[in-house]
Amino acid sequence: MISSLSITNYALIKKLQLEPDAGLNIITGETGAGKSIMLGAVGLLLGNRADTKALLDKDKKCVVEGEFDISKLGLQALFEEEDLDYESSSIIRREINSKGKSRAFINDVPVTLEVMKTVGLRLIDIHSQNESIQLGNKSVKVKLIDDFAQTAKELQQFQSDYIAFTQLSKKLADLLEEEKNSKTDEDYKKYLLDELVAAHLKASEQAELEEELKLLEHAEEIKLKLSQISVEFDESDVAINDRLKEAASALKNISGFSKELETLSSRFESATEEIVDIVRDIVNIQENVEHNPARLEEVSQRLDLIYKLQQKHKVADVEGLVKIQTQLERETIGAINLEEEIKELKAESERLKKQLIKSAELLSEKRRSVIDTFSISLNGLLAEVGMPDGHVAFVYKRVEPWKLGIDEIEILFSANKGIKPEPVGNVASGGEFSRLMFCIKYLLASKTAMPTVVFDEIDTGVSGEIALKMANMMRRMSTNHQIISISHLPQIAARGQAHYFVYKNNEAEKAESMIRKLEPADRLEEIAKMIGGENPSDTARNSAKELIEME
Predict the structure, then answer these.
(1) CA 80, CA 243: separation in Å to the nearest integer?
(2) How many CA atoms within 13 Å lie on the side-chain side of 502?
(3) Order of all β-strands in the sheet with 62-69
């Protein structure tokens, strides 16, 4: 139920605070005072669309916040599903800034409007003359029967089976599509794999082959240059090796004269040894390098093959080709196993389908067992709310399994004697629909944990004894459920356990909608005005008192 409601900077509301009673709350007021505006603000907590037009002061943000006692609504699973912290007293808040940007919060955690709508609709149920569209929704119609039949256990079992079956069906469909595609590509993939396998690729060979190719292509030039270096070092008239030895000997002879000379001598000796090692390596390379046309051709052909495979598979190195080969091998093995996996899934699908149909039949049987009772009860209530010739019938239709079972329910309605009932959304007027929904909610109130129910002038078009009956029905509903009724009827206003009056304050710079809870004397005066006009007579006051004291 709503523990408190705060509205700031919305339409004509500058600041409004409301703490409704746990039972029947009545809201009355002048036409245009802001009763509908309040419902618009509450609609923001249900995820309804908002923009800057809703702001009273365009430079400030609008905030609508509701605190709810949800301890008896069984919402723990929903909160867990939406990854929200469950609190028995939870706060929902909606903010709209001056640029029209909207933000939603549940227990101070930012949420999407979709999540807010999902949670909000479990907390507040608004009924007005404009909501006949609800009964065009097939889920809503089935849920009405479920609430009356109390099918929570059977529905939970069916939905568990339905999820298992649909998830497996999707997996099976994906595998069948994969099998179809794999058969189309199988020959080509086998050709690609055979080509890669025949190439005997090694991850590091490309770099090694490219280096070897350079040596083979320039073998003669390399051999010539290295030979020249070797001759200059050892065999020429002024051999570098001999001159280095002479210099090293000279430095060594004078190294004892200072630390600096000793260091230079040591460094020169080390450098000379390094040069000698380098020349030795040069000689070895010179001796091993040879012009080998056969090997050159072999390396060139190998690299050409690698480059062609890389181009075909759009990769930059041999490592990429090896990965593709591994993937093709995996797909080949997978294709062998795919048929067996599909066979197993088909068998499992048949088993799950049988289980699904079994749980669907149990759910459907329980629904159908209450349809006659539900319609008879509704038809009796319609007479009490001013539709003595009203007739409701529920038509059951079996369909393929969907998220709520194998049933679709059509609600047929006729307000007049001798007229064949038709789908309620096509024939019921606003007032008729409102009273029909009121009767439905009345019947369900004793069978399910309903959210806060808001009736928005559903009593339009009724008066006298009928209005009194509706008032008493609301009062009985409020025994176990919080009810908020926006009404213009004194009979209903008199049955309230808390009475709020909405009025427009024209003394401020801008007109503002205000609300106040009426004390007993003010409440009597307001109901008297509802009976006898702005200046009620003593007779109207006495009538108001009688209505208030009526049991």
Answers:
(1) 89
(2) 27
(3) 13-18, 2-10, 62-69, 89-96, 102-106, 109-111
Whether the CB-CB separation of 371 and 142 falls below 8 Å is answered with no
Confidence (pLDDT) at 184: 65
Residue 516, number of CB atoms within 10 A of its CB: 12
Cα separation, 539 vs 132, in Å, equals 39
Domains of the chain, CATH where assigned:
1-123+451-518 (3.40.50.300), 178-336 (no CATH)
Residue 365 pLDDT level (bands cut at 50, 70, 90): very high
- Confidence (pLDDT) at 133: 54
* d(C-alpha 403, C-alpha 423), whole Å: 23
- What are 61's two structure tokens? 């943000």
> What sign for the dihedral angle of Cα 161, 166, 172, 176?
positive
Q: How is residue 454 written in tokens?
A: 């808001």
Whole-angstrom distance, CA of residue 349 vs CA of residue 276: 80
Token representation of residue 358: 């079994």
Q: Express each pLDDT in 223-251 by its tens digit.
A: 888 888 877 777 665 577 778 888 888 88
Summarize pLDDT for 3-58 with one digit per residue, the tens. Answer: 999 999 998 888 999 999 999 999 998 877 788 888 889 999 998 887 777 888 88
Q: Is the distance from CB of 77 to CB of 52 less than 8 angstroms?
A: no
Of 541, 547, 540, 539, the closest CA to residue 521 belongs to 541
Burial of 111 (0-12, 13-18, 19+ CB in 10 A): buried
What is the rounded distance in angstroms from the CA atom of residue 394 to the CA atom of residue 396?
6
Question: Which tokens in the block code for residue 114?
Answer: 């979709």
13-18 long-range contacts (CB < 8 A, ≥24 apart) are 13/37, 13/38, 13/41, 13/56, 13/512, 13/513, 14/56, 14/57, 14/508, 14/512, 16/513, 16/514, 16/515, 18/500, 18/515
- Can you tell me whether residue 7 is helix, strand or coil? strand
**Residue 528 φ/ψ, nearest 5 degrees:** -60, -40
Nearest in space to 526 (alpha carbons), one of 165, 517, 153: 517
